[in-house]
Design a protein that fits this description.
The complex is a heterodimer. Chain A is α/β, with parallel strands linked by helices. Helix content of chain A is 34%, strand content 11%. Chain A folds into 3 domains: 6-62, no CATH class; 85-339, 3-Layer(aba) Sandwich (Aspartate Aminotransferase, domain 2), CATH 3.40.640; 346-470, Alpha-Beta Complex (Aspartate Aminotransferase, domain 1). Chain A has helices spanning 50-62, 84-90, 93-96, 108-125, 137-155, 171-178, 196-202, 225-234, 327-363, 393-402, 430-449, 451-455, 468-473, and strands at 129-131, 161-165, 182-186, 207-213, 238-242, 262-264, 285-287, 299-303, 306-310, 379-382, 409-410, 419-422. By secondary structure, chain B is of the alpha/beta class. In chain B, strand 3, helix 7 (164-174) and strand 4 form a beta-alpha-beta unit. The chains are: A alpha/beta, B alpha/beta.
Chain lengths: 479, 452
């Protein structure tokens, strides 16, 4: 059953809110304000009751699917279970109901939490100083690259290029452009890793940085990381670590020890904060000491037992958020790290990698596995073996929905044809993994035996296959 | 708790299937010399009870807004939040989902975003809204880059009446793209129109106007619109407080090209400034639409003609266009946008007007009462929405002392402007949550503080 738009429930004069009666004298605001600044007509918002709103959005929620509904194997998105206690922590009134302009002395408890979070993040990554300001992973990338920009500016060096492997997330080249760099893309080798010769060729005096995801988007650890960092650093460039895949290495390897200079984390991936249907996330940035002066202002510091925001940062790259970033998300990540404990974080990674390898092993005979190197927390299959005139990876993804399971990330990374990028995460149990594996096998059989079933999928969802081309051709973006 | 459900025997079974002995065998690709060979220096795991004790203990070190009568605003606003919002967003099908890549199983998020986009358009008087950006300040940054691209010009007029943090963020965003920012100075609590007239030229990519502005005043929007009418190449970017738009003429009617702002006042808590949501709406212009950053949801139909919603115009976005995308934004503030949508639906046509009116009237009342006190001046006493610029000229007491003494009376009197600008005074914010008693108490307390 689809659901009407909220405005269709509207009836003139119906109300869904209550406010106290105005208890001060009322004036006509138009008398004092500049000419023409009072609205002539009321905003055309719905006129609905509270019950209307509750039923409407409850219906909408029933047309949605989250991690709590079942497996959500979106590769590189780390859709792990979002612990409920963390929601409670973020809603503790003393923590939630504080204003960003309150003086530091009134919010010491929150600053203590944020400061400890910074310390844990630095320890986990082997970096020296952390800014919590970026509100998403891409925001973190942008900040990281602006730090690099500022660093070279201070060194009096003009470096204009950023190298990005062709397997990288789209945000990497986009962030480099936002930060004013030219993007140089290098090809991966036959094992799905950075090709050292291509890298050497691409490196010159104009290169400011290499952006690397490790393990990369194929889930493969860049074994040559030591050579890679040597090549970049020898040429005077810096190394940027995209933390999207950090769930693969907790307790096993740290970007700081791999000689990365700047990194970002995704608290909404590795550290379990809910993805919210697309956000909010949080993308803290960490750097080695020599880059610390360029971090965003203000920076959280501690003196004695007092926590404070340091605004006196003359070399800062600037500011990217009106306040201190997605604080509510940080509280949840803090709770997650404390409940997992230092040892627990390692076990989390171990089980994420075990789950992914189990699935890969069970599916590699049915679906093509183009890059067979050892992979960690995620792997990329190709639907090319199943591909026919009428059926592509997109159809396989849609058919999964009929079995009430979310689909993997598809058509990414771009270096794999008909790609399906699968990341089960550590919170899936064996039963759920087996169910997904079995479903993928059934779909492969269906393609042989009843192709139209897959071709016309989905059948059991609230709407059938939607016409995306029509949506883009004649954009209908509002009522 | 690690939320891992596989037991050791199950793990063993899985390892056997894979054909390795130990879990650590799966990590052989990581070179020995960079292996992390010790334990994290992070405290041991806590149970739920221990965790709650720990965070409660830390939380006790805060004095939250319930302990004060707060008049803090300046970009983060403490409005009434209908109870249903938190109940609805806790439907886990919403908050544990991600970006709706598989539309057919994500219709809830998609339709809610379409409704959000529609209501933002209604509020701003604009044609098209995206599905949210990271916060109000970064939304301004994105708008500036957009104007730079669209006009190919580099000058952006960024008046001193725009929120200082927004100015800072816009400058950070604009700098790599060669944007040249020019100040327009203050005159009273408004931007100086003469200076603006002087600075506007054919090479100006955009003028940014905050509405109401940082000091709480409304700019002369009609006059500004007229100026820009003669300067067609310059884009008008308006940073608008969405609650104020319940009462004020929508920026669309002044010819705004891009309207951005902080959506937090719409049903989102103060939360120490985040997560908030940036909104962005543009005029209905296909060429400009192609420059829009962020997710967009469009209406379409399925193979049987049933109405449905999808993410659309994705060729603007980083996952398709990579280095040539309109922005790098991927994750946005979808759940906060959902909260804003629920808020707008709940308050509705009458409610948004009533909230805005109460904000105005209560601010008006406080300003009127403050006029009775000697040594106190409200710079924009005739021109305000729900914030005003309070100057204190009382011998023998500094602004900091006033703040401190008001605090001792459990009143957060306002944001100290000297901390953020080159001006002196307090920026005082009044929302519909204030009662006449609160406001009378503010006046009485200030009087006592100044005469003590």
């Amino acid at each position: 059953m689809t659901e009407a738009l909220i405005k269709e429930y509207s009836s003139p004069g119906r109300k869904g809110y209550s406010l106290p009666e105005l208890d001060v004298p009322e004036e006509n605001p138009g008398e004092r304000l500049p000419e023409g600044t009072i609205r002539k007509e009321a905003v055309e918002l719905p006129e609905v009751s509270e019950v209307d709103v509750v039923r409407h959005f409850t219906s909408l929620s029933n047309m949605n699917y989250g991690v709590d509904s079942g497996i959500y194997p979106l590769g590189s998105c780390t859709m792990k279970y979002n612990p409920k206690i963390n929601e409670d922590v973020a809603r503790i009134p003393n923590l939630a109901n504080i204003h960003p302009h309150q003086k530091e002395k009134y919010v010491q408890g929150s600053l203590e939490i944020l400061y400890e979070l910074k310390q844990y993040l630095a320890e986990i990554s082997g970096m020296d100083e952390v800014s919590l300001q970026p509100a998403s992973g891409a925001h973190g990338e942008y900040v990281g690259l602006m730090i690099i920009r500022k660093y070279f500016e201070k060194q009096g060096e003009e470096r204009t290029k950023v190298i990005v492997p062709d397997s990288a997330h789209g945000t990497n080249p986009a962030s480099a452009t936002m930060a004013g760099f030219d993007v140089v893309e290098i090809e991966s080798n036959e094992r799905g890793m950075v090709d050292l010769d291509s890298l050497r060729e691409a490196v010159d005096d104009d290169v400011a940085a290499l952006m690397l995801t490790n393990p990369n988007t194929l889930g493969i650890f860049e074994k040559d990381i030591c050579e890679i960092q040597q090549i970049i650093h020898d040429a005077g460039g810096l190394l940027y670590y995209d933390g999207a895949n950090m769930n693969a290495v907790l307790g096993y390897a740290r970007p700081g020890d791999m000689e990365f200079d700047v990194i970002h984390y995704n608290l909404h991936k590795t550290f379990s904060t809910p993805h919210g249907g697309g956000g909010p996330g949080s993308g803290p940035v960490a750097v080695k000491d020599r880059l610390a002066p360029y971090l965003p202002a203000p920076l959280l510091k501690k003196e004695g037992s007092e926590y404070y925001w340091d605004y006196d940062r003359p070399d800062t790259m600037g500011k990217v958020h009106a306040f201190h970033g997605n604080y509510g998300v940080m509280l949840r990540a803090y709770a997650y790290i404390r409940t997992a404990g230092g040892e627990g974080l390692k076990e989390i990674t171990e089980n994420a990698v075990l789950n992914a390898n189990y699935m890969k092993h069970k599916l590699k005979d049915t679906y093509e596995l183009p890059f067979a190197s050892d992979s960690l927390h995620e792997f990329v299959l190709s639907g090319s073996r199943q591909k026919t005139d009428g059926i592509t990876t997109a159809n396989i993804a849609k058919r999964l929905l009929d079995y009430e399971q979310y689909a993997p990330t598809i058509y990414f990374p771009l270096i794999v044809k008909e790609a399906m990028m699968v990341e089960p995460t550590e919170t899936e149990n064996l039963r759920s993994l087996d169910r997904f594996i079995e479903t993928m096998k059934i779909i492969s059989r269906e393609i042989e035996e009843e192709p139209e079933l897959v071709e016309n999928a989905p059948h059991n969802t609230v709407v059938r296959k939607l016409d995306e081309a029509k949506a883009a051709r004649n954009p209908d973006l509002r009522w | 708790m690690k939320y891992i459900s596989n037991t050791p025997p199950e793990q063993k079974k899985m390892l056997q299937e894979i054909g390795v002995e130990e879990i650590s065998d799966l990590f052989q690709a990581i070179p020995e010399n960079i292996r992390f060979d010790r334990s994290f220096d992070i405290p041991e795991a806590l149970s739920e009870l221990e965790l709650m004790d720990l965070v409660q203990e830390k939380a006790e070190k805060n004095l939250d807004l319930s302990k004060f009568d707060s008049y803090l605003g300046a970009g983060s606003y403490d409005h009434y939040i209908p109870a249903i919002i938190d109940h609805l967003i806790l439907r886990s099908e919403f908050y544990t989902a991600y970006t709706p890549y598989q539309a057919e199983l994500s219709q809830g998020t998609l339709q809610a975003m379409y409704e959000y986009q529609s209501m933002i358009c209604e509020l701003t008087g604009m044609g098209i809204s995206n599905a949210s950006l990271l916060d109000g300040a970064s939304a301004l940054g994105e708008a500036v880059i957009m104007a730079r691209r669209q006009t190919r010009n580099s000058r952006v007029l960024l008046p001193k009446t725009v929120h200082p943090a927004y100015r800072n963020v816009a400058q950070t965003y604009g700098e790599p793209h060669g944007v040249e920012f020019l100040d327009v100075p203050l005159q009273g609590g408004q931007l100086n129109l003469d200076s603006l007239t002087e600075e506007l030229d054919d090479d100006t990519a955009a003028l940014v106007v905050q509405y109401p502005n940082f000091y709480g005043s409304l700019e002369e929007m009609e006059k500004i619109a007229e100026l820009l009418d003669n300067q067609k190449k310059t884009m008008l970017i308006v940073v608008a407080n969405p609650i104020a738009l319940g009462l004020l003429t929508p920026p669309g009617e002044f010819g705004a090209d891009i309207v951005v702002g902080e959506g937090q006042p719409l049903g989102n808590g103060v939360n120490y400034g985040g997560p908030n949501l940036g909104y962005m709406a543009i005029k209905d212009d296909r060429r400009l639409l192609r420059q829009l950053p962020g997710r967009l949801v469009g209406k379409t139909e399925d193979v049987e003609g049933e109405i449905g919603y999808v993410m659309t115009m994705q060729t603007r976005e980083q996952h398709i266009r990579r280095g040539k995308a309109t922005s790098n934004i991927c994750t946005n503030q979808a759940l906060n946008a959902l909260m804003a949508a629920i808020y707008l639906a709940t308050m509705g046509k009458e409610g948004i007007q009533e909230v805005a009116n109460q904000c105005y009237q209560k601010t008006r009342y406080l300003i009127t009462r403050l006029a009775e006190i000697e040594g106190v001046e409200v710079v924009n006493q005739e021109n305000h929405f729900n914030e005003f610029w309070l100057k204190i000229d009382s011998p023998g007491i500094s602004l900091e002392e006033v703040e401190q003494k008001m605090c001792e009376k459990d009143i957060l009197a306002g944001v100290n402007l000297t901390e953020m600008t080159d001006q002196e005074g307090l920026l005082v914010c009044v929302t519909e949550k204030k009662t006449r008693q609160d406001l009378d108490n503010y006046v009485r307390s200030l009087e006592v503080v100044l005469n003590d």
